[in-house]
Amino acid sequence: MKHSISLLLMVFALSGCSTYYYSYVNSYDDTLVQAEDGSFINEGSDVVVRYSFSEYNGGFVYQIENRSNDPISVDWNKSAVSMEDKVYQDANRGKISGSMSSQNLAYSSTGSFSGKVELPNERLFIPPGEKTSYTPVSVSQFFNLDAIPKSSFQKGYIGVSIVRRAQFTKEDSPLVFRSYLTIVNEKDHTERVIEDEFYISGVTKSKERTLGLVSTSRNQKNIFYILK
What we know:
Radius of gyration: 22 Å
Order of helices and strands: HEEEEEEEEEEEEEEEEHE
């Protein structure tokens, strides 16, 4: 019984140390249309790209619609998200999962692998008149929250909950990132790059999952949280 109580106290202690960082994404140059749900739309005559961010960790969700009469694909080898001097590509590519066992002999070693190898998704095919969604990276992979000065946060309230808020312009934002999406016409093999830029316009941190922030982040596709 004592062990159960100690374990329960440890769980509460760890959860009490966690902080929720709710981050707000904005378009850098205002060329994108922002929908009512907070997502951003790059609307071309034949290809429409909608950008949104999943609630937890800011999964960068691309919804790509093919309005042309030709089949197209996204070439992930030539697509990336970049920030400063770093480039991030599809995190789902080339995954290996399973278990390995080995046996060491006097002059050699043998082993076996049980599991699966997922080959890289080099192309995402989209037929004419269709659309699909894909999440290659998460903003949490490259967003360094510790780099934000504590002095940037001001005390505030959401209901009865105490929060701390920081607001940023695109000039002083802690994170500016750019999306490069290479679209290939599968009929004539021509390529085009769709390039858009975003920045973090605000961060609200809270020691609890404040109800107002939870409902907002679920409904607005430009808001996500990171738990630290």
